[in-house]
Please model this.
Amino acid sequence: MNASKVNKGLLLFLCTLTTFTILTSYYRYVVATDFLVSYEIDCDPTVANCYIGCEDDDCSEEYYYQEIERHASTLLNLCGYDISDCDAAYTCMIGEDDCSLFSCDPTEEANECAVPNK
Amino acid sequence: MLCYLYPQPSYLIFSSDVPALLYYSHIPTAFIALLIAFIVFTNAPKKLLNRLLSLILLSFTFWITINLLAWTLVQGQWILFVWSLYGILQAAIALLSIYFVYTFTRGESMPLIQKVILTGLMAPVLFFAASDLNLSGFNISWCDAFGYEGLIYLSYYTALGLIAFIWIGWLLLQGITKVSKLVQQQRIVLGLGLGSFLLIFFGGIYIISYLGDLNILVNTDVEFYTLFSMTFFMSIVALLIVKFKTFNVGLSATSALIIALLILTASQFTYVQSRTGLLITAATILLTSVLSIFLYRAVRSETKQREHLQELSTKLEKANTRLKTLDKQKSEFVSIASHQLRSPLTSIRGYASMLIEGSFGSIPEKAKEPLQRIETSAKRMALAVEDYLNVSRIESGNMKYELANFNLQSEIERICDDVRPTALQAGLVLLFRTNLQSKAIVNADIGKTVQIAHNLINNSIKYTKKGTITVFVRDDVAKKQVYMDVIDTGVGMSQETMDILFQKFSRADGANQVNTTGTGLGLFVAHKMAEAMGGDITAHSEGEGKGSRFTLTLPLAM
Model:
């Protein structure tokens, strides 16, 4: 096989693979929404260990939250694309796979937690 | 997956919730990169170097565009899609940079094996771009994917940037001492621009992603500053274009630079928000525009002049080549023609001589004079043909010289004895004088030397109506040279005549009145012969009517 044919072969290989990769990526993330999503949900520090967040850069006002992580397609089925007014977004459904609720772990040094008074 | 905490952008990229610096660092840089890519490509679309630079700049522009979208979009699925392409584009920039520098330094395409290596390095980035190794999720609250980037994938394509940095450095430094100073400068300038871009861009992005992933770096907009490394690289490319003419870009480069300058200045509108700032920016852009017009006009004028000179130079070069070819053809023609003439001339001279001598019986008295004229004319013609042949031999480099030691003094004395009757016949006195410290032994071709001496003495006889011709042989042992002066009291020469005396076919004004048979080649041939034997011939005269002195110089054999 001569060099020119190999050159063309390499170029064709790269172009095909790039196109395939972009299309696959598009299908996975945009069409199939096959990925995890995480977001903050409201937390009551009197009943659960909550992370403490700041409303602004100066942290003049604090808020409490927990984190939830679940599969994007599940969330899409439950709430559609906008979860701001969707109650189902704030809790894991019974029997829902890959859904986890994360509370603040005060034993970890990096975390600043609001914990219920016992 | 809407980032419900963030506002929807208008026209995809304009959002009130992103730092103004985002637009200042992204939009002008993308425009400039795109503009230079366009200019470099359109000026020489078939040149590999231009194609590669354009591809690098296009990849970078694409990277900036998707980065801008990732900052402003609020749909998680779209953000993840564009985010997943970062690795592909960064790997492409790194590997294309290697290919580009290889072509830049070697002036040819990369060998196949190295292309295979580059493809092999690129393949994993493409294979795993849509997998969890690259991106596995999205944080709706933060509207980013920093927490879901795969460290191995990220490290791999960043390492490609580092590999490119080292490879490029090696390519640029290899054999740098053997190239010209101009090429050295080009390599240093390119290495500085591309190297700093790769280091800052890849290193900065990796560190920011890594720290963002660990939640150590909350404010990730510091990545904007890494993009200014491309502005620096663009300046270097502009320098290569304007100063070194690397990408065959002419006046359009200036246009590009001016547009880039205006874009940069105008882009401050996106960043500056105060009224005073806006006024200052407006004034600056006005001033820049005016200066740009002057600069453009000045460069256009200079470029036109340069192009005109270049055109003239090319034409002159072509004409010169053509002239050389014609001159060679002429010499060949003269050589062939002269050889063809010599044989019949020999017959004419021989038979005329034999007729005069009575070899074919007695001839009438009144036929003798015409026969003598035939013989004399044939002799002159033979001499002229010999001159043409000599010129032809000299110009074609076929004149042969057989150098040997001989006594110049005795040779010249013999020539004087031979020529003296002719001088006497013309009513002239021919004197021979010497002033020698050495034995006057020279190392030269004896036949050619005799020919030169004959030529100079006969010339003096021809151009002297009355008086004396003195042939003077002297030497300068310190300078290791022997001289033969031929001094006459003849017609002399003006300075203008002396200036053209040794050129082909050059004859002094009025020479035809004194000597009608000259070809204007004798002195040219004599001068060339003297030079070829390591000597020279010079001429001197106080002016017309004041006599002349011709001096043959030959090296003294030690």
